[in-house]
Amino acid sequence: MTTKELLHRLVDDLGEPQAAEALTWIRARYGMPDPCRDDTTLPEWVGSFSSGRGDLAERHEETLRDEGDGR
User: What residue spans carry the region label Disordered (predicted)?
Assistant: First the structure.
C-alpha cells in the first residue's frame, strides 16, 4: 500500500470535525489555498495614488458640479 493510499484510509476513518481540523492544518502547513474561498487580492499599489483633492467621497457633489462647469 502506498503512502497516499494509507493517508486516504486514515482520512476516511476521520469524523467531520477531525477532518476539518486536519484539512486546516494541512493547508496551512503546505500553503495550499482554500478552493471554496475567493482569495483574489488587489495589487499592492491599489490605493496608493492621491488625487490631491481631499476626500472625494465626501465632496462628490462639489466635484461633479465643478467638472460640469469645465473647471
Answer: 48-71
Contact 39, 31 (CB under 8 A): no
As to burial, measured by CB atoms within 10 angstroms (0-12 exposed, 13-18 middle, 19+ buried), residue 63 is middle
The separation between the first and the last C-alpha atoms of the chain, rounded to the nearest angstrom, is 76
- Residue 53, in any domain of the structure: no
Instruction: Find the DSSP H helices in the chain.
Output: 3-13, 16-30, 60-68
pTM: 0.45
Joined grid coordinates for residue 2: 502506498
* Inter-residue contact 13 to 19 (CB < 8 Å): no
* Tally of domains in the chain: 1
Q: Does 8 map to a domain? A: yes
Higher local confidence (pLDDT), 30 or 58: 30
